[in-house]
Recover the amino acids of this structure.
């Protein structure tokens, strides 16, 4: 059940979104077919989940908050492992798809969905502590640097002692992307991530303001956390927009996936991949010892 305070605090934001529209609303019904269930999407997600399966065994509790849950694919996977998930997103249409999956898999007692705009994140919206806060595949790239800094500052308040924050973020440089666009002589696109400001990224006919963050930036902003691990996701595996080519070259994709498994243990490559995973642990507060 949704926190009634959340409904009150976000009502004005919802009214704004009803007028302006949320860019992700229009792809909610097709997102799983265009990314989640594509070979590239599945392989990249598996890299993330291979890591999550290791760290969730270390958590002391079973409560997870997911930011930018999209169509709820990760929420379902978490629930199958026995966790309780609060799945949040700014897109009402994405939340509808999530809720459909909750009904389909009879996960009503494990997954609850809530509207949440990270640009106005308030740690008082939740009445309980979470053992893990998770955000997958560039959800945090849809908020500006100031909002991300505030989020990193507020998250420890809703995490249990020794709680973890794991996010999958797009860096300012992607080797695959630069090579691809350079070969097509699209020099502007080859270096589009390098800007200090936002990029209007195309999303099936809509434009989404997107910010790219270097691993070092996120690390420096997360002053209340210690870094447990940093690793590339999609250093050998290509970006999802190359799916059409790789659907015809499955053997090549399999070779790249094997290479990915070897390279994604190298944290130094995090800033060159399509995404990178950063695992942060809440620092002990004064007077608290593990």
């Amino acid at each position: 059940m949704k926190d009634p305070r959340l409904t009150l605090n976000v009502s004005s934001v919802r009214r704004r979104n009803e007028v302006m529209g949320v860019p992700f609303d229009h792809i909610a019904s097709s997102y799983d077919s265009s990314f989640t269930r594509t070979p590239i999407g599945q392989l990249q997600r598996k890299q993330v989940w291979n890591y999550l399966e290791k760290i969730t065994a270390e958590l002391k509790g079973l409560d997870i908050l997911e930011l930018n849950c999209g169509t709820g694919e990760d929420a379902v996977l978490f629930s199958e492992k026995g966790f309780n998930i609060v799945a949040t997103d700014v897109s009402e249409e994405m939340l509808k798809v999530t809720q459909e999956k909750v009904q389909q898999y009879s996960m009503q007692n494990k997954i609850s969905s809530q509207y949440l705009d990270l640009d106005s994140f308030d740690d008082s919206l939740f009445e309980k502590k979470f053992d893990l806060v998770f955000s997958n595949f560039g959800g945090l790239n849809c908020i500006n640097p100031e909002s991300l800094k505030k989020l990193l500052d507020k998250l420890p308040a809703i995490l249990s002692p020794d709680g973890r924050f794991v996010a999958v973020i797009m860096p300012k440089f992607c080797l695959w992307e630069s090579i691809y666009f350079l070969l097509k002589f699209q020099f502007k696109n080859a270096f589009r991530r390098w800007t200090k400001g936002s990029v209007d990224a195309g999303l099936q006919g809509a434009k989404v303001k997107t910010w790219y963050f270097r691993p070092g930036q996120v690390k420096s902003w997360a002053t209340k956390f210690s870094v447990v691990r940093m690793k590339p996701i999609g250093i050998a595996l290509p970006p999802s927009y190359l799916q059409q080519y790789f659907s015809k070259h499955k053997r090549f994709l399999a070779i790249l996936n094997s290479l990915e498994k070897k390279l994604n243990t190298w944290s130094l490559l995090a800033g060159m991949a399509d995404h990178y995973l950063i695992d942060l642990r809440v620092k002990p507060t004064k007077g608290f010892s593990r």
Q: What stands out?
A: Residues 4-171+211-282 form a domain with the Rossmann fold fold (CATH 3.40.50.150). Residues 1-21 have pLDDT under 50 and may be disordered. Strands lie at 63-67, 84-89, 111-115, 130-135, 159-169, 199-203, 206-210, 225-233, 275-282.
